[in-house]
Design a protein that fits this description.
The chain is α/β, with parallel strands linked by helices. The chain is built from 16 helices and 11 strands.
Length: 384
């Protein structure tokens, strides 16, 4: 059986992972799991799956549970990362939200594990470090994002030099057809109503601003080694086609399916094999037609442009973009900035911290901290 560590077990991707494992109990065993602070939920899941190695990222969540500490529960970021090094773990599903997912990614790859990566921020903030960790430790990086899972499937059996271009698809989010004025007035409740996917709050807001698609462009650059000028994005409102790969001979291959995170999760756990699944089947092309594609409107969605430009700039710019965006999203959800004000926060932070480098983990973490402080200061300036 394949031993799996599910990091971020109580989040949307974590729940999808556990749903897949429930249907494939003869194939997978949950060896370890973590959550940010949902102690009660972790206890119930640990009992269900017979999991003994548990970690809670927020150490304060265990402050009034000495029984769990004495039972061997780990705490803090180091405790979460440690789960990926356990000898019984073969696959680490990293569904931790935000930059906090970087240490577990590095730990898994350095330990020679397969890292089923749903935490795109790892590659955005420290792509070169992640790839170096995989080379150094012999670990394997397999994407969980539906778009990158699609690309992996489309490229199966092809050489890198046969690929001309990648085309990621974006749903366009809840504001695809909204005016600039409506987006200025949009509240968090409206922005959280994603038309095709059910996700956590942070990634849902990122999808509404298209910041998420910029993060995925940067991620694709590192996963597949293509320059940014050969990675494109189109808006596809129904989210049926998850991505395209265009080859040098002009052929184009796409991967399609109804929006369901369990499919890319299962593929990441079992790649390159395809075990049968009783749920993830019965695609109806007629019912799901027509398939519509549109260009990205970078004027109404400036965070997309800011993120892609940060990726092109390289150095510490992607880490700055990622950290500033996390602060901006949190501030929007708290009602401290407007929907369009998020881009203002990120742009100002990128301008102030322009030209910084991030060649090792210490520098990445230092840049991440500086960007969060600067972005927080911009939020206060906007509110004043």
């Amino acid at each position: 059986m394949t031993g799996v560590a599910v990091l971020g077990a109580t989040g949307s991707v974590g729940r999808s992972t556990l749903a897949v494992i429930r249907r494939h109990r003869k194939r997978f065993r949950v060896v370890a799991m973590s959550a940010r602070r949902s102690v009660g939920a972790l206890e119930r899941l640990a009992a269900e799956f017979g999991t003994g190695d548990i970690a809670v990222a927020d150490a304060a969540a265990l402050a009034d549970r000495p029984d769990l500490s004495s039972a061997g529960w780990r705490s803090g970021p180091a405790g979460v990362a440690e789960l990926g090094r356990l000898p019984g773990v073969d696959v680490v599903v990293n569904a931790v939200a935000g930059a906090a997912g970087l240490p577990p990614t590095l730990a898994a790859l350095e330990s020679g594990k397969r890292c089923a990566l749903a935490n795109k921020e790892s590659l955005v903030a420290a792509g070169e470090l992640v790839l170096a960790a995989a080379r150094r430790g012999g670990g394997e990086l397999v994407p969980v994002d539906s778009e990158h899972s699609a690309i992996l499937q489309c490229m199966a059996g092809s050489r890198p030099d046969e690929v001309h271009r990648l085309v990621l698809t974006a749903s366009g989010g809840p504001f695809r057809e909204a005016s600039a004025e409506a987006m200025e007035r949009a509240d968090a409740a409206t922005a959280l109503r994603h038309p095709t996917w059910e996700m956590g709050a942070k990634i849902t807001i990122d999808s509404a601003t298209l910041a998420n698609k910029a993060l995925e462009v940067i991620e694709a650059h590192f996963l597949y080694g293509l320059p940014y000028e050969r990675i494109d994005v189109v808006v596809h409102p129904t989210s049926i086609v998850h991505s395209f790969v265009e080859f040098v001979d002009g052929s184009v291959i796409s991967q399609m399916g109804v929006p369901n995170m369990e499919l890319p999760v299962l593929h990441a756990l079992t790649w390159p094999r395809r075990p049968p699944d009783p749920v993830l089947r019965n695609f109806d092309p007629v019912a799901l037609s027509p398939l519509v594609f549109e260009p990205v409107d970078e004027t109404r969605f400036p965070l997309f442009r800011l993120g892609v430009n940060a990726g092109r700039a390289g150095g510490a710019a992607p880490a700055v973009f990622n950290a500033a965006n996390e602060v901006a999203v949190d501030s929007f959800l708290k009602g401290e900035v407007t929907f369009t004000g998020m881009a203002e926060v990120v742009a100002a932070t990128l301008e102030v911290l322009d030209g910084r480098t991030a060649s090792d983990l210490r520098e990445v973490l230092r840049v991440d901290g500086a960007a969060r402080r600067r972005a927080s200061a911009e939020v206060k300036r906007i509110r004043a």
